[in-house]
């Protein structure tokens, strides 16, 4: 049985307390870097980076963050490794566990991160799968904390596809006492299982989960609008169909007129300007938090590693 606390496989595995603690660590680490202070908590440790899908932010911020904490990032080559083809997942996980102190994984199937965690003995960090993106949720939470102060009772309206990013954000909202609204075309709602798992928690906290097929309805009481690409990595074959379905689900100045005046906007990036979000919103620093959130990926990832990895000074202690 995998001890889910040893890893970041899904945000749903982490308690509210641990999520909040991680956000506070990230805020502290950000302040330290801005003051020119760098911890050497992971001096001499190596962290593997296995990315089956493209990345700018995640791959860069993990590497920079690991170096800032005194460790080394080891970029692995998925094509050369041939996970499950050239060699079994079990044997790859077992070997990597003898060489590196943790493994950051971006892949298609959620099942792969779960298996690596099951077979290996090192922390596995989910850096995006088709089902979830918990690292993005941490950076988003940090940005809310810094810019809006408090989580409780806030409403996040996610305008877009009910897949990986939306799934982790629904979990984040449920865990931290926020309302979650999804605005999407018919047929692009979130998987029932994700909703069912979070419903009791939302109910217990008196928070709402709502789905709208009219984005104007969805933004009415939102504190933050969130956007993601219409066509996720690996779905390129669905591009034409998705683009026509999602056309009314663009965050633009017109849609913002239906949202409260204090409402902010963010995006996980990369943004496809002119599709899910316009230049006018992206380039409005008064409302757009996406670039701050992108910076926070750096600090949030360090905070996740801080929680999961054994500090160098404690390695080998019984
Ligand atoms: N938001 C995000 O995960 O960005 P990358 O795909 O560039 O890593
Ligand atoms: N939903 C997007 C997120 C990119 C960070 C994708 O999976 O491509």
From TrEMBL:
GO molecular function, one term: amino acid binding
Record field: catalytic activity: carbamoyl phosphate + L-ornithine = L-citrulline + phosphate + H(+)
Gene Ontology BP terms: citrulline biosynthetic process; L-arginine biosynthetic process via ornithine
The Aspartate/ornithine carbamoyltransferase carbamoyl-P binding domain, residue ranges: 6-146
UniProt keyword list: Transferase
Domain Aspartate/ornithine carbamoyltransferase Asp/Orn-binding, residue spans: 153-307
Known EC number: 2.1.3.3
Family assignment from sequence similarity: Belongs to the aspartate/ornithine carbamoyltransferase superfamily. OTCase family.
NCBIfam families, alphabetized: orni_carb_tr (TIGR00658), PRK00779.1 (NF001986)
Name the UniProt record assigns to this protein: Ornithine carbamoyltransferase
């Amino acid at each position: 049985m995998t001890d889910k606390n040893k890893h970041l496989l899904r945000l749903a595995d982490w308690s509210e307390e641990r999520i909040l603690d991680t956000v506070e660590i990230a805020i502290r680490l950000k302040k330290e870097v801005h003051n020119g202070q760098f911890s050497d908590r992971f001096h001499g440790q190596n962290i593997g980076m296995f990315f089956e899908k493209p990345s700018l932010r995640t791959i860069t911020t993990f590497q920079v963050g690991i170096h800032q904490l005194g460790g080394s990032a080891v970029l692995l080559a998925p094509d050369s490794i041939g996970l499950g083809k050239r060699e079994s997942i079990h044997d790859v996980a077992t070997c990597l566990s003898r060489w590196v102190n943790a493994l950051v994984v971006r892949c298609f199937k959620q099942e792969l991160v779960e298996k690596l965690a099951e077979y290996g003995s090192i922390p596995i960090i989910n850096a995006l799968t088709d089902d979830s993106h918990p690292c993005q949720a941490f950076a988003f939470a940090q940005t809310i904390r810094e810019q809006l102060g408090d989580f409780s009772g806030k409403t996040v309206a996610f305008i877009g596809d009910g897949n990986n990013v939306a799934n982790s954000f629904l979990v984040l909202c449920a865990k931290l006492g926020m309302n979650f609204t999804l605005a999407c075309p018919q047929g692009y709602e979130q998987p029932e299982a994700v909703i069912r798992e979070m419903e009791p928690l939302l109910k217990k906290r008196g928070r709402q989960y709502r789905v709208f097929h009219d984005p104007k309805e969805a933004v009415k009481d939102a504190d933050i609008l969130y956007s993601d690409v219409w066509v996720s990595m690996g779905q390129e074959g669905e591009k034409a169909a998705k683009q026509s379905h999602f056309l009314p689900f663009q965050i633009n100045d017109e849609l913002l007129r239906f949202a409260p005046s204090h409402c902010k906007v963010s995006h996980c990036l990369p943004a496809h300007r002119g599709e899910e979000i316009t230049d006018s919103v992206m380039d409005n620093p008064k409302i757009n938090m996406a670039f701050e959130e992108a910076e926070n990926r750096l600090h949030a990832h360090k905070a996740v590693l801080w929680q999961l990895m054994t500090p160098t000074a404690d390695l080998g202690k019984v």
